[in-house]
Amino acid sequence: MRRRDRFRRVTGAATVVVVVGCPGVAAPAAAAAPGSRPEVVHYDSADLAEYERKWSNIYGPLDNATRTVDDGVLTVTDVPFKTGVDYSVYDHLKYMAVSNRTFPVPRQGSVEFSVDVTARTPGATGGHVVHGRYGPPGSAAVAGPDARPYAAPVLEGQQAAVVLNMIDFCTGQLFDWFVSGTRAFPLIERLPSTVTGNTGNPDCPGAAEVGLDRAYTQIVREVPITPGVPHRVAIRYREAGGHASVTYLLDGIVVARVGQVGVPLDRQGVAWTGTYPSLGPGEPLAGKIRSFSMAHGLFSLLDAFPFQYGCTPPEATGPGTCDPRYAPYSVSVPPAERAFGQGAVGSFRNFTVRTVGR
Predict the structure, then answer these.
(1) pLDDT exceeds 70 at position 17
(2) Considering only CA atoms, which of 1, 56, 6, 95 is closest in space to residue 349?
(3) Closest to 348 in 3D by CA, of 10, 43, 14, 12
(4) Would you say residue 21 has pLDDT above 70?
(5) Distances from the Cα of 210 to the Cαs of 85, 136, 207, 252, in angstroms?
(6) Pseudo-torsion of CA 259, 262, 268, 271, nearest 10°?
(7) Chain centroid to CA 193: how far?
């Protein structure tokens, strides 16, 4: 059987639509506006050389995952995860590739990223609990008996996942699908300037500083999926009438829609998973996002928000240090708790960008 024949869309996901932050608003239809014609870009690669022309590993080799392209299917393998980085968001990125092309956002309309994903995440299991200590990066390994302990259960997809990302590096706004062996969840976040470097980016003129009053990382909801088969994940960002929303689809089914993009879910007073509470009010971003980059990779998400914001990395001489304003939020999770034998294998096919509007 040729590999392309195995890319069937089969889902065991619940069909309930969750509309977040938009009371009384029905899930949006996929149809184009009257008189508009969708622009569709297919972003697959025939071989590894073409893949490397289209995508960049802007954060480096990370966990040294292996990559193959066979009959148009990209497969990225990292089993088991090799490192656990107790500093900032760098533990999250086991493998990440970002499109060399950016895709404009219509002032009235939508842009949608989608791809067929098959995920295998051996070693990631329900009920797993991560342990650490409150303190600066690297302090868990040398913590004294008085150090306050940290423990939190994590979802299967937080332990290891195959991911599709929609990123605006200038505002830091980010939308994700996390797909693991038997579960999937949409995630919405805004990255701080310490991660994106937006204010120093010449491609982001006038970019505003994003601190913890505007940054957030939140899992919207988790749904079951049929394991071992491809699933079509899609993220659709829409602007209309001065409002911005994002819709997450799984195998053509709307799983969640979030309105007031830029405002954390808990500040909107809507139902969500509770992972992770925000530290500020955020801000509406309608009209401020000009384009998105598409990305994909293998991720974990095992630590605590705000992911050691305001802290320095550990050194050979001992733990890092944290700005006193942010020190109470810092949690040190030792490498053995971050990489405990789990890993991920992700196959991607049919990268597609669909733009409607102007």
Answers:
(1) no
(2) 6
(3) 43
(4) no
(5) 23, 22, 9, 34
(6) 70
(7) 17
pLDDT above 70 coverage of the chain, percent = 90
The predicted structure's pLDDT at residue 290:
97
Q: How far is CA 70 from CA 3, 76, 98, 338, in A?
A: 8, 11, 20, 31
Which is nearest to 250 in space by CA: 222, 212, 269?
222
Selected residue with higher pLDDT from 12 and 49: 49
User: Burial level of 139, CB count in 10 A (0-12/13-18/19+)?
Assistant: buried
Domain 14-25+34-357, CATH: 2.60.120
Structure tokens at 316: 């050979």
User: Six-digit token pair at 184?
Assistant: 């999937």
- Rounded (5°) CA angle 296-300-304: 125
Beta strands in 106-172 (DSSP E): 109-120, 129-134, 149-153, 161-167
**Predicted pLDDT at 145:** 81
Residue 216 region by backbone torsions, left for phi larger than 0, else alpha for psi between -120 and 50, else beta: beta
Q: Provide the pLDDT for residue 61.
A: 86
Q: Cβ contacts of residue 351 below 8 Å, gap of 6+?
A: 42, 43, 44, 113, 114, 115, 294, 296
* Cβ-contact 231, 7 below 8 angstroms: no
Cβ-based neighbour number of residue 352 at 10 Å:
17
pTM of the shown model? 0.91
What are the sequence ranges of the domains in the chain?
A: 14-25+34-357
Give the containing element (helix H, strand E) for 345. strand 344-357
Per-residue confidence band for 18, with pLDDT thresholds at 50, 70 and 90: low
Type of residue found at 41: V
